Structure formats: structure tokens, C-alpha cells
Amino acid sequence: MTDPRNEAPVAIVAGGGAMPLRVASACRATGRPFVAVLLEGFARPADWAGVPQISIRLGAAGAGIEWLKRQGARQVVLVGDIRRPSILSLRPDAGAAKHLARIGMKAFSGDDTLLSAVREVLREEGFEPVGPTRFLSEAQAPSGLLTRAGPNAMAMADIARGVAVVRALGAVDVGQGAVVQQGLVLGVEAIEGTDALLARVGGLRRDGPGGVLVKLVKPGQDREVDMPALGPRTVENAVAAGLAGIAFEAEGALLLDRAQMVERADSAGLFLLAIDPRDHVGAATAGATA
């Protein structure tokens, strides 16, 4: 068996949030060397003290690629939260400009198109793009209920409605989530992200049973490199929005600190349910006509 300490370092291209640090911890636990490319405005250098690192702005991809080559990195993990800049604010360096000239408007289309272009660039430069699931397999969940509370019939109907809505959104590369209450779509996720969606729908909820947040992988989305992420903050925001539960795609979401998520959900009476969306196709229509 190959000693992981002798392998080429993994390059963690880190955005915001805790997920990049979880990948780093997983590398440490197995003895796998790693280096970090910290995206300015998102990752905090202080969190990466002692790790070989470079901080770059999003438009300085050329400098980041050259630095990774000097570090001997082979695999590259893109992980963490970022807010994509406008084309006017990008200010690409020479290396990034070379790739942008070829990629063209792919860089400013939907997230899936952009990520596909980024992976293509990395491969052309000799890297292997990999996803955080290579290191955080325990952060995924198979189909089933994670909490003491479970969905009632109305919540199941809302889940089915949410699946239909999110699949339609995902087909045009818009978002990964929606909130449904009593059959009404209170909000859908776009560029603002899940936390902002939950903050927005809190003021739109109806009287009666709370709604459900549904999070799914987009059709055709690369499950290894780009997956929805949920964490304790998601649970807290769902509780604050008055929701009854969260349904997410089984083996299709990264659960940041799963134990803490379950604990907070149980204390609030919120359900967490991992689903296979195929089990809910057509159920929304059936519920509406019953």
C-alpha cells in the first residue's frame, strides 16, 4: 500500500465556510500532504496557518496555477462558498486572460457551465480535479430519516412539489433549492444561496404547518465536484423561518457536522430526510388531484 505521505500534495482551492477546513482535516488524518490556494474575500489566511498557501483574487487564476505547479500538486479540490464576480470586476491576470479568451461566455453563464469550464482548464494544465467527497465520504447520507421527527402527509406532499420545482430549476442551471409550504412555493434558490433564501421566506410563511426546504443535485451536475452543502446554520435558519423540515438528496449533499445538525434539528422538532428524488416524481401531481 502506498504511504499517503509520499504522494503529491492535494491542492485545496478554498472559498469561504468550514468545508475547505474539513477537507484539510481529513488530509491531516490520513497523512496526505496538501497545499492551499485561498480565494481572497472568502477564505481567511489565519485559518490556514502553517499550511503552504497562496492568496489570490478570483481573476488571478494564472498565478495560482503556476504556484500549484511549483508545489508539485496533482489533484485539485474546489471547495467552499464563493460569490462569482461580474465580468467588469474580474480583472484577469495574463494566465486567466488566456483561458477566458477560449472559454468566452461560459465563464459568465450558469454555475454548471462555469465549473465545467474550470475543470477543463485544470485538466489542460495537467491537474486532476476531484471533489471533496474523496475525503469526506462520511458527510453524505443514504436515503432515510436522520431525526426523531419525521414528515407528515402534508410535508411529504410539499417535498414532492419541491422536487418538481427544483428539478425544473436545475434543468436550466438556476438553483438547487426551494421552500414549499402547503403546496405553495414560498421561494426558490438562485444566486443568493440557501441562507438568503431561508431569510427571505421567513416573512412569507402561511399560518398552519410549516413548509419544507428541498435541496437537490441539478440534472447533469458533477456530483463529485459540485454538490449542495448543508450544515448546522442551515438547520438554524430553517427553524427561524418556521419550517417543518429539510429534505435533501441522498448521497447528493454534503452534511457539514452531521451530528450537530441532527442535534439542533431534534431540539427544535425539525426533520432531516435524505430522499431519492425519483421516488417523488409524479407525487406532486397526484397529491394535487387527490
TrEMBL record:
Domain of life: Bacteria
LpxI N-terminal domain mapped to chain residues: 10-138
Pfam families: LpxI_C (PF06230), LpxI_N (PF17930)
LpxI C-terminal domain segment(s): 142-272
Descriptive protein name: LpxI family protein
Source species taxonomy: Bacteria, Pseudomonadati, Pseudomonadota, Alphaproteobacteria, Acetobacterales
Signal peptide, first to last residue: none
InterPro entries: LpxI, LpxI_C, LpxI_C_sf, LpxI_N
